[in-house]
């Protein structure tokens, strides 16, 4: 059944708390693509295609031609940051894109000034900025964010708005009673409960207004019962957590292959060095803990040691992140994987990924924003598990384990698009048309 999908008419506002390396690389990228100075490489919504029907039908439309997505020309950007730099200055500071490219879109980027942030240093120890809101309670701050969203939407004449958290990783917070219901959460906002982090205040404001929300960092943010309940009430699509880039991307590509061939793994040691502001924030143990928890779950789900104790029961999985300023945004990761095969014979795999973190993250921001806007127009609300493809630590219903295998995630994403467009789902069984082909011979 084809679902009712409202058309992508008018302008789409993409609002980001955190205008740092990822957000500015994303905004600059879209502006450069609009001017045909570059291509949207890495973005499934812009470059990916999917198969429809039987293999014999040869139907492989581009995703953007198959589902009604907002056009890049209709996007308007905005955001908040505790630093006053406009997006051009912040992009120059981040040093991801070359100055020559940034100069050619300077006018568009300089026009985007950050709104004052909801920020509290006790959640991100290593940052200090002045562009920060004040208010007696966290509830007042949430109302100010709602006002910001409303003003942005009116000033820019947007028919729809989505929000993607691109702010720093906050300190580790565990789910607590204050996060349990909308009532306890709102009481906590009014009581300035320390277990309500700034990212939750933005998420609350967005979801309260029906603005789709995605969380690109490993913070809990909207992954708490109160905000899931609110999302259902306001019919808002949400998703998280933590953009799947770099080392975890590699892990979720490689591990399913090893597991598929029943190869055993004794150990997987992953280390990273990075020197951007994200690296500085993660240099603090409380912020690193949030990231570590997000990265650790991946192998457990893919390898299922409980089903295969002789292959994965003794797996030692270790992750390290080290702040190393000379590398800037050029993160370098090493993986040492100790595997074993036939009769227990040992082998090793070494991966040295010289990656550019924000170059991998920017297309994810674009796809998440466009797909969440599609989900809202298709009347889908609550946790959008079909967007797990983009996350290190996908948010799921509480009774479900997250699915990390990137190939299963892709199949789920593509089948969801087929489903909402009323096309047949693809199982890759193919027996029916094999029979037809054989009979035709
Ligand atoms: N770069 C990647 O590949 C990648 C991958 C996965 C997740 N992430 C996450 O995405 C986020 C952004 O990464 P980045 O490399 O752009 O980091 P960054 O440090 O360059 O940018 C983050 C920005 O957020 C701002 N900020 C922090 N708290 C804020 C708040 N409460 N309100 C408004 N602004 C706030 C900071 O001032 C900074 O400018 C981080 O949490 C990072 O862990 C990044």
List keywords for this structure.
17 helices; 6-stranded parallel sheet; globular; 4-stranded mixed sheet; single chain; 441 residues; Dihydrodipicolinate Reductase, domain 2; 15% strand
Describe this protein's structure:
This protein is an alpha/beta fold. It is 40% helix and 15% strand. It has 17 helices and 10 strands. It has helices at residues 21-34, 44-47, 63-66, 87-94, 99-103, 106-110, 138-155, 182-190, 198-208, 225-233, 246-260, 277-282, 285-303, 309-312, 357-377, 406-420, 431-440, and strands at residues 11-17, 75-80, 158-165, 213-215, 237-239, 264-274, 316-323, 332-340, 346-354, 382-383. Helix 8 packs across helix 10 and helix 11 (246-260) packs parallel to helix 13. The site of nicotinamide-adenine-dinucleotide has 36 residues, from helix 1, helix 12 and helix 15.
């Amino acid at each position: 059944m084809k679902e009712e999908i409202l058309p992508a008419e008018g302008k789409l506002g993409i609002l980001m708390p955190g205008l740092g390396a990822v957000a500015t690389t994303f905004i600059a990228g879209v502006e450069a693509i609009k001017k045909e100075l570059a291509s949207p490489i890495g973005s499934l919504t812009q470059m990916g295609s999917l198969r429809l029907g039987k293999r014999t039908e040869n139907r492989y439309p581009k995703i953007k031609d198959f589902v009604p997505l907002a056009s890049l020309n209709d996007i308007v950007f905005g955001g908040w940051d505790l630093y006053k730099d406009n997006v051009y200055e912040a992009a120059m500071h981040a040093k991801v894109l070359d100055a020559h490219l940034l100069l050619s879109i300077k006018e568009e980027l300089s026009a985007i000034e950050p709104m004052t942030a909801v920020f509290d240093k006790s959640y991100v120890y290593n940052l200090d900025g002045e562009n920060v809101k004040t208010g007696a309670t966290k509830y007042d701050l949430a109302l100010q964010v709602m006002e910001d969203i409303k003003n942005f939407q009116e000033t820019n004449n947007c028919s729809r708005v989505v929000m993607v958290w691109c702010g720093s990783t906050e300190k580790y917070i565990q789910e607590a009673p204050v996060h349990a219901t909308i009532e306890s959460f709102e009481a906590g906002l009014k009581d300035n409960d320390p277990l309500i982090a700034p990212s939750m205040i933005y998420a609350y404001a967005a979801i309260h207004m029906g603005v789709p929300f995605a969380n690109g960092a490993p913070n809990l943010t909207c992954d708490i019962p109160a905000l899931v309940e609110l999302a259902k009430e306001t019919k808002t699509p949400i998703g998280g957590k933590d953009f799947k880039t770099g080392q975890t991307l590699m892990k979720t590509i490689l591990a399913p292959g090893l597991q598929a061939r029943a190869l055993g793994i004794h150990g997987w040691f992953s280390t990273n060095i990075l020197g951007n502001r994200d690296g500085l924030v993660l240099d603090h143990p409380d912020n690193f803990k949030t990231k570590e928890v997000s990265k650790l779950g991946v192998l457990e789900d893919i390898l299922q040691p409980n089903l295969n104790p002789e292959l994965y029961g003794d797996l030692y999985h270790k992750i390290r992140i080290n702040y190393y300023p000379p590398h800037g945004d050029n993160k370098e990761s090493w993986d040492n994987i100790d595997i074993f095969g036939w009769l227990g014979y040992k082998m090793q795999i070494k991966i040295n990924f010289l990656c550019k973190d924000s170059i991998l993250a920017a297309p994810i921001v674009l796809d998440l924003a466009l797909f969440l806007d599609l989900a809202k127009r298709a009347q889908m609300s609550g946790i959008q598990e079909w967007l797990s493809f983009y996350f290190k630590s996908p948010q799921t219903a509480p009774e479900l384990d997250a699915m990390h295998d990137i190939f299963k995630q892709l199949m789920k994403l593509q089948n969801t698009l087929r489903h909402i467009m009323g096309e047949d789902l693809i199982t890759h069984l193919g027996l029916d048309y094999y029979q037809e082909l054989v009979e035709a011979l």
